[in-house]
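It is worth pausing here to work through a concrete case rather than discussing structure prediction in the abstract. The textbook approach is simple: state the sequence, then state the predicted structure, then interpret. We follow exactly that order.
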Amino acid sequence: MLPKYHIIIGAIASLILFYLTNLTITQTIIIFLSSFLIDIDHYIIYGIMYKNWSLKNSRKYFFNIREKWIKIPLKERKKYKRHIFIFHGIEFWIILFIISNYFPFILFILYGFAIHIFLDYLDLIYFKEPLYQKFSQFYVYQTNKKKINFNY
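Step two, the predicted structure:
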C-alpha cells in the first residue's frame, strides 16, 4: 500500500483507539508513527542495494518497481525474488514482543505495526499476491533461493 494511505488510515485508526480506549496521547502518537514508519525497511534495502541513502531516490525506486510489478501476469511473478522487509515479518515481531516485557511502550509499536500489516494484507489480496511475503521473512528468504532477481 502506498505510504500516504498508511499515514491517513494510521491517523484515523490511532484517533479511534484514543477515543475508544484509555490510551495516552504519547501511546497514541507511538501507534500512529509506527503504523507507517515500519516501512523504513524499504529505505534500508534501497540504501544497502544501491549505496545511496537518498529518501527521494528510495521512494522513486519502490514506486517504479511497484508500477512494473503489478503489470506482470500473476504466474510470471512467481519466478522473481521478493525483497526481505525485516520489520514486516513475524520473526521481528516476536523479538519486539519479548522486549515489550521489559519496555512496555514497545507494545504500542506493535499495535501500529498491526495496523500497517493489516493494510498491507488488504493490498496483497487486492493484487492477488501471496500473504507469506508480509508474514515470514525467513520464508521469503528460503523461497528466494530458487528465483531470479526482478530487474525492471
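Step three, interpretation. The longest helix spans residues 106-126. The radius of gyration is 16 Å.
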